[in-house]
């Protein structure tokens, strides 16, 4: 990823750790080392600020906030700060798809075009000349499946993970769903790209709901993730952390505000990124995963008893 773009996810990031044995309880002496490490990162200007949360299957073990949410104003970072969580959106989108899979709404090996007709007749790069931009395409050997879009083996990429997609300029009249031609035939290998955006479209098509509405009803409300959404309500906008990045390409450059700043609303939510959330909310999602779908710890207890 372009190092200038790490500001949202890292330079003012949520540090989410699923399970650490050395931290025994929130605000306990075991958390003093975490405090010191995170405070030191801010003092060294590794990050302008950080919210950290450590959880196991049952409860929060540690939570802390250090530094600023906005380098221009010096606004203090708090534990309830809202971050644009970028690709941490992807696990939520994939969980939504797996809910629908459990209901028998589609199969993992179904072709995506069965539900999204725009995915029919996809093209694959046969060649790309970086000097001239000239390219040749051929039909894909096989259609991508739901399994492949869930596992980033569909052939789709991102411009920041593929020089060909970064420099690709389609001929007039050519259109490509989700970013451009495929980089390889579906199923051949793994490549990080826009596959989870397709998963989001699949969730919308199969459920008949907009992505944010589906998330709210089937994931956020059951998990009490009341601070997670694509569109941040006006009354919460003051808690949104500024988008920040290193100036220039140097990792030790000054941290500055991104231009333009991410606003409280998202024009078109996608499955691959864009949600705003807090460390506490995402911790609830993590606990649900650790407990096999149950955020209360009951699933974990049942598994132990069955043994």
Give an overview in words.
The chain is α+β, with helices and mostly antiparallel strands. The chain has 2 domains: 3-82 and 227-306, no CATH class; 106-207, Up-down Bundle (Methane Monooxygenase Hydroxylase, Chain G, domain 1), CATH 1.20.58. Helices cover 29% and strands 15% of the residues. α3 crosses α6. The longest helix has 14 residues, at 89-102.
Describe the structure using short key phrases.
307 residues, alpha+beta, Methane Monooxygenase Hydroxylase, Chain G, domain 1, 2 domains, two-stranded antiparallel ribbon, 10 strands, 15% strand
Structural class: alpha+beta
What global shape is seen?
globular
What proportion strand?
5-15%
Distance between the termini: 44 Å
Query: How many individual domains?
Result: 2
Low-confidence stretches: 1-26, 299-307
> Counting H and I runs of at least 4 residues, what is the number of helices?
9
Radius of gyration: 21 Å
DSSP E strands, number: 10
Element string (H = helix, E = strand): HEHEEEEHEEHHHHEEEHH
Helix amount, in percent? 25-40%
> Which sequence of strands runs across the widest sheet?
1-2-3-4
